[in-house]
Write a structure and sequence with these properties.
The strands form four sheets. The chain has a five-stranded mixed β-sheet with strand order 10-12-13-15-14. The chain is 48% helix and 18% strand. With 482 residues, it is of the alpha+beta class. Strand 12 and strand 13 form a beta hairpin. It contains twelve helices and 15 strands. It has three domains: 120 residues, Sandwich (Jelly Rolls); 146 residues, no CATH class; 144 residues, Heat Shock Protein 90, CATH 3.30.565. Helix 9 packs across helix 10.
Amino acid sequence: MTAQAPRSALTPDELRTLFLFESLDAEQLSWLAERGRVEVREASTAVYAQGESATCFFVLLSGTVALSRHLHGDDIEVSRTDQRGVYGGATQAYLGDRVDQVYSHTMQAVTDAELFVLPAAEFATAVRTWFPMALHLLEGLFLGTRAMNVIVGERERLVALGSLTAGLTHELNNPAAAAVRATDTLRDRVTGMRHKLALVADGRVDGTRLHELVEMQDAAVRLAREAHPLSAIEASDAEDELGDWLESAGVERAWDIAPVLVSGGIDAGWLAAATEGLSDDNRRAAVGWLTYTVDTELLMGEIEDAVRRISGLVDAARQYSQLDRAAQQPVDIHELLDATLVMLQAKIPEGVRVVKEYDSGLPAVPAYGAELNQVWTNLIDNGLAAMDGRGTLTLATRHDDTHAFVEIRDTGTGIDPEIRPRIFEPFFTTKPVGEGTGLGLDISYRIVVNKHGGDIRVASRPGETRFRVSLPIASPAPQEPG
């Protein structure tokens, strides 16, 4: 039996069997048959590629094709089908030069595929000539929707970015302000210490005692660095005891000096032993010198702590954005969750308790870290909104041999059963424009399912809502959309 030769064209009757053309009249079908052609693409070859000039309109006759988008260095499959009559390619040719006439995605032949191919110019002529009213409606819908989406999308992104930025700025401001205050005070203390050095230089402080004074200073510094925080009652008792000793030694401003020395771990017994054998004048000078020393050490500790907090916040922001990471690589899920919490800290009300139930044995997961952080941001933000300022937000992780699981729970009002089936639909939201993260649950779903080959599910009742995300521990294979 001789193999059938590939056909190069379709008859008008064959075109009528395609749902796209079934309502056309005989003259229109003949016009298409004359101008179109049949082409075959072998399995694993591109029908057309994203970004190329959109020169043709394609209709699938047989076989299977997949559509994908190239985003941030990755090819993401968005659909796969073997339905006869589906189409793609130069679908916006009728808009002419009002839009860039390039392919918006890539079509790949998964199996050997046969396609009806119509040049873009011919397709545009047919739409403009045969369907003038529909053309005006399509133009208005496409251009109006695009303009609206640009405005709303920019507004949503700006509001979400502003919210995160405001939160980070608030968190950075506290340690920055503390560092500024400590630096101003430190400047005053250093000025005082220079004054004491001047007294030594002009002989008003006995120079023979300088060596002992320096040793006393070094010991005080060690005490200040190793000092343990005291309870309010312990600190009060220690200050009373030290204040009495300072007064008996004739030290001025004894009750102002005592809290500083106690904070540095110095008590009356240590100070008495350290200044034993000094004259009254030298004892007072030594106490003043030690007070400046301890206060300076404590202030430097405050500055160090503030700078470390700022560095930690900057590191959390870097971790959140993943700016220095490859597109996909093994990530620590706990680091991603913690970074997201830091970024959202300003949005977490005082009445909300955050609980972490982390699996200490959770392995690294191959993932796109920045995109997963967007998912955590959206789920946490939704949970906070549902609790209305009071409740418990729980972040839990666990794993089995093949998957890592992240569960985000809140004790809010729950999801209305009537809208629960719709929460993963594109563009569905219960929040007005400008509120929330600007990232719908449908995008979260696509990030988890299509991009990572995982799954996201929700269970909800009043008082408890659980979003559970599962991610494969091994690198996922490309996923067909469900």
